[in-house]
Amino acid sequence: MTHPPYGGVATFARAPLVEPSGAWRADVGVLGVPFDLALGFRPGARFAPRAIREASLRYAPTGEGFYDLTTDSFRLAGATFADAGDVVMPTLRDDLVRERTTDAARQVRARCRVPVFLGGDHSVSFPLLRAFDDVEELHVVQLDAHLDFTHERGDSTFSNSSPFRRAAESMPNLSHISTLGLRGLRFDPEAVRAAKARGHALVTMTSVRERFEDVLASLPTGKLVYVSVDVDAFDPAVLPGTSSPEPDGFTYDVAMKVLRHVARSNRVVGLDVVELAPNLDPSGRSELLAARLVVETLCEVLA
Amino acid sequence: MTHPPYGGVATFARAPLVEPSGAWRADVGVLGVPFDLALGFRPGARFAPRAIREASLRYAPTGEGFYDLTTDSFRLAGATFADAGDVVMPTLRDDLVRERTTDAARQVRARCRVPVFLGGDHSVSFPLLRAFDDVEELHVVQLDAHLDFTHERGDSTFSNSSPFRRAAESMPNLSHISTLGLRGLRFDPEAVRAAKARGHALVTMTSVRERFEDVLASLPTGKLVYVSVDVDAFDPAVLPGTSSPEPDGFTYDVAMKVLRHVARSNRVVGLDVVELAPNLDPSGRSELLAARLVVETLCEVLA
Amino acid sequence: MTHPPYGGVATFARAPLVEPSGAWRADVGVLGVPFDLALGFRPGARFAPRAIREASLRYAPTGEGFYDLTTDSFRLAGATFADAGDVVMPTLRDDLVRERTTDAARQVRARCRVPVFLGGDHSVSFPLLRAFDDVEELHVVQLDAHLDFTHERGDSTFSNSSPFRRAAESMPNLSHISTLGLRGLRFDPEAVRAAKARGHALVTMTSVRERFEDVLASLPTGKLVYVSVDVDAFDPAVLPGTSSPEPDGFTYDVAMKVLRHVARSNRVVGLDVVELAPNLDPSGRSELLAARLVVETLCEVLA
Amino acid sequence: MTHPPYGGVATFARAPLVEPSGAWRADVGVLGVPFDLALGFRPGARFAPRAIREASLRYAPTGEGFYDLTTDSFRLAGATFADAGDVVMPTLRDDLVRERTTDAARQVRARCRVPVFLGGDHSVSFPLLRAFDDVEELHVVQLDAHLDFTHERGDSTFSNSSPFRRAAESMPNLSHISTLGLRGLRFDPEAVRAAKARGHALVTMTSVRERFEDVLASLPTGKLVYVSVDVDAFDPAVLPGTSSPEPDGFTYDVAMKVLRHVARSNRVVGLDVVELAPNLDPSGRSELLAARLVVETLCEVLA
Amino acid sequence: MTHPPYGGVATFARAPLVEPSGAWRADVGVLGVPFDLALGFRPGARFAPRAIREASLRYAPTGEGFYDLTTDSFRLAGATFADAGDVVMPTLRDDLVRERTTDAARQVRARCRVPVFLGGDHSVSFPLLRAFDDVEELHVVQLDAHLDFTHERGDSTFSNSSPFRRAAESMPNLSHISTLGLRGLRFDPEAVRAAKARGHALVTMTSVRERFEDVLASLPTGKLVYVSVDVDAFDPAVLPGTSSPEPDGFTYDVAMKVLRHVARSNRVVGLDVVELAPNLDPSGRSELLAARLVVETLCEVLA
Amino acid sequence: MTHPPYGGVATFARAPLVEPSGAWRADVGVLGVPFDLALGFRPGARFAPRAIREASLRYAPTGEGFYDLTTDSFRLAGATFADAGDVVMPTLRDDLVRERTTDAARQVRARCRVPVFLGGDHSVSFPLLRAFDDVEELHVVQLDAHLDFTHERGDSTFSNSSPFRRAAESMPNLSHISTLGLRGLRFDPEAVRAAKARGHALVTMTSVRERFEDVLASLPTGKLVYVSVDVDAFDPAVLPGTSSPEPDGFTYDVAMKVLRHVARSNRVVGLDVVELAPNLDPSGRSELLAARLVVETLCEVLA
To answer: Which InterPro entries did the record assign (chains A, B, C, D, E, F) (predicted)?
Structure first.
């Protein structure tokens, strides 16, 4: 007797609800960061953790896992999940947001094999990454239309354009970042140069489209990888619910090919999905895609 | 450190999440019934339990209760809540829906002082009421634009037009029903006559508007009362999110005056709120009102 | 075996579909005029005839009529309806719109006791009224936030601000107009003076609210009356789906009291409902109200 | 003088409105089945028949047919249409729905060359197919993200996951089913095995994308074919208005290539389009696509 | 030749666009503060200044003013307007927001008789009020469902619950605040006591409804008054587009009666309208009401 | 200190606001034509000029231009813009619309290198093109799903199906039109033949997809070109906000490749973007794409 997706209290994939600091262990621990004050355009990412949880109910795994038609096998069989709820948001105090987010992320990370973080605008990736400051030679694979390596925007150094700059500055263990899906009319020249100076891989969407095998081949192998998916990496036709859409982005299929490749050639130590604004998509397909992306990526990471 | 309303997993008023049959006790136990197959027009009430839970976070009581400006006192202080989740919905099988709903309602009722049920279309009030078949001389106070005492509609005897007819038939202990807010262009003459024959009070919205004190005076006193609020009792301007709106209904203020009066002069044994269709109100005010109505009614019931 | 409101092809109140010039007779003939090029703000009234037809299915009378709870009697029993479809709209050519509308209105009028016209913006009332140019001493009762008696607006004399000015000019039989519900920040002084010079009754919403009995008493008696309901007469809370809403308008109840009074003291020769923009109200209650208003007015007119 | 798409009462492609059992003959007979109680997620398919009718007015053929730019020829010239309205929906009684649907479908089929059925959720394809139980060696070509061959879901054997299982069980003449567009995270292993055991063709979307010519070549030839289009076969970017969208589906172009191929190599005996939820797509493009798909498929079927 | 409301670049009431610090003088100077990071629920007030500007085009005064039907006179004749644009918003840095807002407000105030401020959430009233720190014995009349006199919320002292507390602390010249429209389930007892200790008038909506003449009589007379309108003072039926709606609020008519009374018995030195979230009201009536409120209040203030 | 996109009064790309006939010079002059009475389906293009202006704020160039990641260079550096506002729309009088539009377009054209026109429905391209009647051997490149070369539709010769027919008739200097993106079910055979007789290039979307290099090669070279972008050229998934969407259209990338090619091989003398209906796309991505298309095309035109 299982609920339809519209039934029951929505924890991620029907996982038990736990406290970040509680006495639990699971393969996957989920933490929401409902913060969207750091973006510069259309708000709504604060509603994303709850929306992704609701959408995840279409993809709630059972013990036997997901039967795959093509391979006649089961995925994610036996995997255990826990939902650690959301970081408690203050009003205005972005300093507290970062502090609490890092704290909770550390706690969740300590209790599971793969922590999954549901943003929130992209600024949350900085305090999330900080919880991985002890990982040796940490690699980041970022799917994103934008570089998010800007030093300062709108008089702030903590906007959603800066998370990886801040992380790179404060985390000596952050070795490398690969950003895939770059496109759009405006780039910050200083940020581009700074990222290139650090040896980061800046992969445009044109490259993804035209030289996909080369792009896959250029990704890290055998590393400890944190994956950060800004949903504006996707084509706005595929995922319209985001603050700052840029045309000609990823399809789900191509994004999953990247994520599958990354998961199979490395050890994924964490995953975040950010910049989903469910209020901008009345069709609901944006959060359904985000939820499926999380679950299907876990199929690969835990395979 | 408390969440803003958009933060955290949404249980009713941040109550602990329990199983209907679990080992818990609380002043208030909440159960959702996400079923809307029995209505005859615009679906969406299946989404109501979750929407009301989310909206209830604006009204989550703290231990000290709600400070009331006018009386300089605290309401609902110390009250305990538990959220028993939703009844598990099958596909199509309305017989199973009724069976499971009655079962879960009995379990919740056994564990709390006041069970609160979140519909669902109004057909769920029949299986909910059945869980009170042992209450001696049960009275119902129903806020509703429609009588819902029709024998059969659309070849079914279990539609959302029939819950009280079915309850009256099968529950000898159901002594009396007062229906307030009746209006609209079409009434079922057979249903009206049957209700009148049983001595029910049929109170039109015109009466509520023009003879309010008389209406209050005519309500039951000193009884065990089950309260059923069909949100189409409200004016559609006030609550647009419902399948079958009828103009010229209750304001929140007048509805609360009725509910306060009922709560203070009787013992309320249960409460349901039904026919909310959050998908029909993009402003979100419909579920906010429904959630507040539940919490504020509880202020009176538990006073 | 009757359809639920969402079933079947939507003719008005499930009436047979006829041609305006066909061989039919009915108590009520319905004609749509899906024209909204003459308004100066937000379009959408072109969608109103179809939306009102759909909404009318909630109020489709059966042969026995509508049972009234309060009077224990049946309304509209035995009344026959025909739906003559819509006037065929050209592109841009408002001259053709007026010509075709008057022609079709004459045809429908010749075949029924009470023609009902579904606008369109208010400019259509001029060509509709022209179909009544043979009615001796024609009176108009207009529910409207605006006077619509302006000579010229935006370089046109046929805008939705001018229908009654054009009718008054060209129809010597148009004796008198009562406009109820006037309010808003801006009036055309020339139009006000011209209307007053003709002896029209200009009744503000404040008067309706504060001196309702006097207002009713001032309405025509024993006349042949054409009723024109601009839905912006209603409070935007009650009916948000209109191009140019003005706060503090009619509730449904008060509007029906006016229409009932007019119908009972006069012979209503025609009715139009205009300026409904269903695209501006995702709750759908605007067209439901408009449809009910038509049907309930007919209950009084055919009583 | 023809209506713009927003004018006139909306029958399919402006066809005359008939009764399923009436005295009519046409090349194409259209029947709506506004039923969506059997789906397990987001309702709205009950609104599809009316929405597709409205959208079809953009594609209403004239006598001379549709001029094709590329071939300099006319399509669908002289074809006659009739709209038989909708099956009358009861409340809750899915047994009656199936009975009435099969009856009406038989009546429509008996009066036209190609019956077109507008769902409704996919459960209606079972009672529709039953109306073809006398067709020798019936083949089905199904465009769908899901297999819909599940034995039981949610305690029911008549959900929208089961129509083809029920048909296969009860119709010995149902020889073969080709399902194209399969994708998604979860498949029912028992259903997959049962379908394969019957020799059905299970074609994933990956195959459609990567081996399109092979897929076309594998389709039936020279058969009597019933075509069932579940609109969730389409990419949600292309058609967002559906209950259970799955990313990476058909474009219109590729779907039409499949349908054209099927129509040209076989005799199409019936067509259904199901699972459209117009309420989930405020842009209106979902029903426009569904309507065009029906009309353009008929161009091929009647060529 | 004047634009319809949808034509032309939208400055407030088609006023010339100026810089706050420019060389201009006008009766009315308008300044927007598109800031909504300090609210605790649903964002969107950042979009309000632009939405109110667009809506104001329906109320753009001409030189001759607005003709009033009832008094046969013209209002706002000859009044001059200037639109000083918006305060430039940084990212996250609420300290800068307050600083820049006070600076720009001072500049605008220095150049006009009546500055009008378009919020933003209610937190902006603190930096706006600071621009009036030289006004002797400043009185505030606040229309609001909430008191907004809380010391701290969500770890911040600058939330939209605290603007008047901060102003009272830092502005010795702020003599008195009258808050009208108070209602809702939860009040901050400490804030209530602090406001009462300062002698503020706390007027509930119940008082407004039941003792309106007394309420008017209790308002300041002969003072220099800053008016702050939080649009959640309105009934959500009347104005649904706001973050935190509370049922049973002001109608437009009653609110205007208050504002008219205040304007006629005092000198209004400034006006703000805050907490409008146009994204929450697809009917657009919320911003239309806000715009009209500003213009009609100015009719009284400049009379 | 620059505004975020939601801040400040929205002129195109933050250009100074000028009068068409004023004393200004700029590289780019922008003129809006908020007219949508000539389309035959869903209105809303009247809202497009303002919506595109708002969206353009995401792409407001700074003096140094847009840094391009791939080429490490700056685009549009130093370009100057002016926003000449909108043509003043009358009511109904399409003759005046054409007259005023041509007049204003001539004025804008005289003051800038590249005039950009924001429609409105496609009928406005006729009066816009007339402002170029002195350009020797004018070529048009039109991106469009439809030919728009019909002689008469709906009894009018000035509908949005006829702009290029009218222009071809009245402008002997209009040498050639290339239309790219043609598709859909219905073409006007007379229009197709007339266009072919004039030697126009009619390029279907199928050709664009399958023979892209040939299509590019067939475009004019070394000419004076007016570019007209009907946004229904785009795939409705990519740009849903348009009156008459047709599936399988341009992606942004392919459209830009065409426009880049045209701009680099010719001199672009003017650009219009028409048929955007922002009211049909609640995600807002339609106007964001239209705004970016304008700015990015200018990057090429001014390169």
So the answer is: Ureohydrolase, Ureohydrolase_dom_sf, Ureohydrolase_Mn_BS
